[in-house]
Design brief:
60% helix; rod-shaped; 0% strand; 2 helices; mainly alpha
Length: 75
């Protein structure tokens, strides 16, 4: 009876998930456009920003996959 009550209490308490890393909440800004600058330079910076955003999204997926492997499956 005590074990059943303990299990029921743990189930009602839920799972305490780790906080989402701050880096994963950040938005990536567009590359600045400076007057008179060659378009190829702007495009190169924009592609670098996209690479950073894609890497961040990859870390978000890894974080979520780690959570689901430790705490259960997707619903």
């Amino acid at each position: 009876m005590d074990r059943a009550a303990s299990a029921k209490g743990q189930a009602a308490a839920g799972i305490v998930l780790p906080p989402l890393p701050d880096d994963l909440r950040r938005q990536e800004a567009h590359a600045p456009v400076l007057e008179g600058e060659p378009l190829i330079a702007i495009l190169a910076r924009e592609r670098q920003a996209l690479d950073r955003a894609n890497a961040r999204q990859g870390r978000t997926v890894e974080f979520y996959d780690d959570l689901t492997s430790r705490y259960g499956t997707r619903r």
